[in-house]
C-alpha cells in the first residue's frame, strides 16, 4: 500500500505540494473547507467591484483532482492526533497519514480586540470581499437618500486601517471607484466628495519596502485624494467610526488591513509557536520532534539566510510547497537529506490605483507606469487557469479604457442590504 500524505489547506503552499507529488508513488489527500483555490493577492479587487469572485478562484478538483493519486476532500479540520497519526475532521471523521503537511494559512487579527471585527471586516476570504463590497456600495446608496448632513458625511467617510500592501491597494482602488466609476451614478451626492482615510500605526506605509518607494506610494495616494495618517494607532472601533488616541473619525465603513494571525494548526499538534501562532520549523520546514509533519506558508515561521522571518506572501508558500513535495519524494527513494529550504526572492510589488505601482527588486526600484505593467503581468501570470487569466485581462482592459467597474453588485439578504439602523439623532 502506498504511503499516504495528507495536506491540510489548498492555498498556494498546499496546492504546490500536491502538484509536486502528482503521479508519484504516494497517495495524496488534500483537505480544505472550501472547494476552490483563491488567488488572495487580487481579493481586494473583488472588494472594490473590479472583479467577480469567479475571476480569481478555481475549483480544487480541476487543479489537482484529475491526478489519479490525489483525492480532494471537502471538510473542516478540528485537530490532529499526533500519536495515532490521524487528522480529525468535522463529524468525528479521522483521516490517517504517514506524512502531514499543514498549509492552513492565516486569518486577520485585531490585537486582542476581536469585538472590532463586527465593525471592521478583514480581507482573507471571498465572503470578506463581498461583504466589504456590499458595505462600500451600500454606503453610497444610503447617502444618496440621507437627508441629515452629518449622517450623509459619515456614510461617505471610508476608513482603511493598516498601511501594508493590502491597505494601500484598497485605498487606491476605493479612491478610483468613488472618483471615476461612481462619479456620474448619483443625483443627490457627489461620490468624488467621499473621504478615503488610510490609517497606519507606524511611521510610513509599506514598511517592508525601501523608504523611497514607501514615500512614493504615500504621495501617489494623496494625489488620488486619499488622506494618509501615519503614527496613528487605532484605539477603538465601533458602528460609527474609529478613534485614534483622542481624535475621532466618524465613518460607517471601516476595513481592517492591519494584522494577521496564523491558523490554530500549532495548537493541534502542540508545537512551539511565535506570538501570532506561526509554527517554528526546522530548516527543512519540518516540525521539531515530528519529522513526519511539515508546516508551510503562513502557518510556519521559517527564517531566511539573515535569520529573519520569511514574509507571508504567495511566492514563499509556493516555493515551500514545491520543496516539501520534493523532500517527501526524496524520502520515499531513501534519500533522507536535502539542502535546507532557501527562499528565492524575485521582488516585492504593490499597486496604487490606475497606472501606478511600486516595485522593489533589490538591485533596482521601479515606480509609476512601468511598475504597474510589471505588477499586472505578474498577477495575470500567477493566476491559476487560462480562463481566469483571460477574464482578468479583459476586465482590466475594459476598466482601463472606460473607467468602469462591472461587478458593482450589492448582495446579501434583505436585512443585510437594508443595513443597520442609524443611531438616534
CATH topology of the largest domain: FAD/NAD(P)-binding domain
CATH architecture descriptor name of the largest domain = 3-Layer(bba) Sandwich
Class inferred from helices and paired strands? alpha/beta
Give me the Rg, rounded: 22 Å
Side-by-side strand order of the widest sheet:
5-2-1-9-21-20
List keywords for this structure.
single chain, 425 residues, alpha/beta, FAD/NAD(P)-binding domain, 2 domains, six-stranded mixed sheet, four-stranded parallel sheet, 25 strands, disordered C terminus
Give a quick precis of the structure.
With 425 residues, this protein is of the alpha/beta class.
Explain what this protein looks like in three dimensions.
- The chain folds into two domains: 4-108 and 260-332, FAD/NAD(P)-binding domain; 114-258 and 348-404, 3-Layer(bba) Sandwich (FAD/NAD(P)-binding domain), CATH 3.50.50.100.
- The chain is 32% helix and 23% strand.
- It contains twelve helices and 25 strands.
- The strands form eight sheets. It has a six-stranded mixed sheet, with helices on one face.
- A hairpin with a 2-residue loop joins strand 15 (241-244) and strand 16.
- Helix 1 runs parallel beside helix 9.
- The radius of gyration is 22 Å and the shape is globular.
